[in-house]
Write a structure and sequence with these properties.
Elements lengths: L10 E12 L2 E12 L3 E6 L5 H9 L6 E6 L3 E5 L10 H6 L13 H14 L15 H13 L5 E5 L7 H18 L2 E5 L3 H7 L2 E6 L2 E7 L11 H13 L10
Parallel strand pairs: 3-7, 3-8, 5-6, 6-7
Antiparallel strand pairs: 1-2, 1-4, 8-9
């Protein structure tokens, strides 16, 4: 979906004048952000620029901000740490997110189990349904986290550096998985990342946060999936790195 689509019914997030201050430290200073259905937006910036602070405010996990944030529809969050409960099986970790999923406030145990299995099938973990979290690899645990976020078919998926702890090859596989899930569900997504190439490969727009503001916006008008060797991808990566004040990907963390 084009970021320029103007139908108000497609707006999933409308944030206006968002401000967050911790003591004397102003982290967000009047942020405006619109996110539309089917759009992936990446937030990049140096450490302490307020990326995760903004995501947490949109997720409803931080009520101490000023300004207005309106989210139209349901939302789910996946963090860098999968945060799985070690005393529950993979399936039961995923089905935990189904509490209150119907009008009566609950699903039957059988229906919840079926929904959880379907979500795990989507992320390629049919064979790990009954496994314990401590037996999972890092990539598997992160896929369970995505299944748990997607099991209720959210309108908005919030991703807070979900691939930061993965090795390079597992991270590439996770990127491909997110694109496939996005193609199936067409959720809106807000991705916080330190990895500029990740932002270019996944997002429709990249917002560069600095000094409490969105300093730059870079549009990525390329079909998915995107090759990292595509000259346009390389050029956009260098453009974003320039906005961050660094001259090469290797020098950015």
């Amino acid at each position: 979906m084009s970021a320029g689509h103007s139908d108000a019914h497609d707006i999933v997030v409308q944030a206006t004048g968002v401000r967050r201050q911790f003591g004397d430290d102003v982290v967000l200073d009047g942020i405006d952000l619109t996110l539309r259905r089917g759009e992936i937006v990446a937030l990049v910036g140096k450490s302490g620029s307020g990326k995760s602070t903004l995501l947490r405010a949109i997720a409803g996990l931080d009520s101490g901000h000023g300004g207005q944030i309106e989210v139209n529809g349901s939302r789910a969050v996946a963090f860098q740490e999968p945060r799985l409960l070690p005393w529950r099986s993979v399936r039961r970790n995923v089905s935990l997110n189904l509490k209150g999923a119907n009008a009566a406030g609950r699903l039957s145990r059988a229906n919840a189990a079926e929904r959880a299995r379907d979500a795990l099938h989507e992320v390629g973990l049919d064979h790990r349904v009954d496994a314990w979290p401590l037996t999972l690899s890092g990539g598997e645990a992160q896929r369970v986290s995505l299944a748990r976020a997607l099991v209720r078919d959210p309108d908005l998926l919030l991703l807070d550096e979900p691939f930061g702890a993965l090795d390079a090859l597992t991270r590439l596989s996770a990127h491909d998985l997110v694109v496939r899930l996005w193609e199936q569900h067409q959720f809106a997504a807000l991705l916080v990342t330190h990895d500029v190439e990740e932002a270019v490969v996944l997002a429709d727009r990249i917002l560069v946060l600095a000094d409490g503001h969105i300093g730059h916006e870079v549009a990525v008008d390329l079909p998915r999936p995107r090759s990292r060797s595509n000259p346009v991808v390389v050029e956009l990566r260098e453009q974003v790195l320039g906005h961050l004040g660094v001259s090469s990907y290797a020098g950015h963390d």
